[in-house]
Design goal:
This protein has about 70 residues and is mainly α. The protein is about 60% helix and about 5% strand. A hairpin with a 3-residue loop joins strand 1 (about 40) and strand 2 (about 45).
Amino acid sequence: MLAQKYGLDEEKIKEELRNSEENEVILEIMEQIGKKRGALVSGGKVDNKKVANIILQDFRDAKIGRITLEKVAK
């Protein structure tokens, strides 16, 4: 859902998930989102706090799909 919402390369993300630590992949995804959304600070570096806030706000506004943090009964 993140790949679709933010226009990321889904295949690249899947490849990174197979070959890297999960935390590294999360940071890479945040970097990509930050660059696409213009969340940059001086020197062209991505402002991770701003990216996190963008993602959280999109989550709250249901812009990245119907996601729940609650346990779902089966």
